[in-house]
Amino acid sequence: MLEVEHLAVSFGTLRVLDDVSLAIPPGQAVGIVGPNGAGKSTLINAVSGTGQVSRGTVRLAGRDVTHTSAARRCRWGIGRSHQIPRPFGDLSVFENVLVAAERGAGLRGRDAAAQALRSLEATGLLSAANTMAGAVPLLGRKRLELARALATSPQLLLLDEIAGGLTEGEADELVSTVLSLKQAGVTIMWIEHVVKALVQVVDRLVCLAFGRIVADGSPEEVLASREVAEVYLGGALA
Ligand SMILES: Nc1ncnc2c1ncn2[C@@H]1O[C@H](COP(=O)(O)OP(=O)(O)OP(=O)(O)O)[C@@H](O)[C@H]1O
Ligand SMILES: [Mg+2]
Asked: Are 214 and 207 in contact (CB under 8 A)?
């Protein structure tokens, strides 16, 4: 579904990603872990088309999308959430998700509204549908990010830290939402520091550090690896 090959991203002289290669087969869920500043969000930006690529290629379902606009990639099936939520603050929660259904999935009228409602229901936001997005607290804004991504009908869903700061019950709810997407066949790349939530969903873990992949394998293998222990300096991943 997704093939990233020899990806490099630099901002001026700062090399943030360096020769990253990663393939995710259809239907697989991959978790991305790594310390702050490792380049995880930069990877999502390069795949979704909102960030620049200095070298390398990004392919979606066999098609080279390295230079394709983010809007077109979205129509072709890439949905994403943002680490820092960016709703339209002066639109309601429902309207925010409706825009995603219309612009991201190309739906119109009742179909768009029905899709928006389904996305709100799946993310537990139905009761906040008429609240102005700018007035929604952080937890709700994180859910809104997920709802907006879902409304675009993604085949490949990129999630950037959606579980931080949740209570255990809330995290469990989130895990079951993402699991049901996976069971529906959506391919998932999920960046998350809350490893406990991540391992309940993913088939595979990739650890990124200093712009390079330092481990890639089953969650058990990766969490037990020396390379990962070293980049976390013995603890933060507990
Ligand atoms: N647009 C940009 N211009 C300049 N530097 C950037 C830009 N975007 C990211 N960086 C830098 O690239 C590095 C990696 O950032 P990135 O956001 O990808 O890390 P991350 O792994 O997502 O970290 P975190 O876990 O804190 O979210 C950081 O040093 C960051 O300051
Ligand atoms: Mg990040």
From this structure: yes
Q: Which residue has the tokens 């809350």?
A: 194
Q: How many CB atoms lie within 10 A of CB 130?
A: 9
Among 86, 105, 184, residue whose Cα is nearest residue 151: 105
Torsion of Cα atoms, 115 then 186 then 143 then 74, to 10°: -70
Per-residue pLDDT of 85-94, as tens digits, reads 889 999 999 9
Asked whether the whole model's pTM tops 0.90, one would answer yes
Q: Name the residue with the closest Cα to ligand 1, atom 3.
A: 11
Architecture of domain 1-77+156-208 in CATH? 3-Layer(aba) Sandwich (3.40)
> In the chain, where are the structural domains located?
1-77+156-208, 85-153
Going from the Cα of 113 to the center of ligand 2, the distance in angstroms, rounded, reads 31
Residue nearest to atom 18 of ligand 1 (CA): 39
Instruction: Round to the nearest angstrom and report the end-to-end CA distance of the chain.
Output: 31
What's the token pair of residue 122?
């799946």
Among 15, 16, 207, residue to substitute to test ligand 1 (most atoms within 8 Å of Cβ): 16
Q: Under a CB-based contact definition with an 8 Å cutoff, are residues 110 and 73 in contact?
A: no
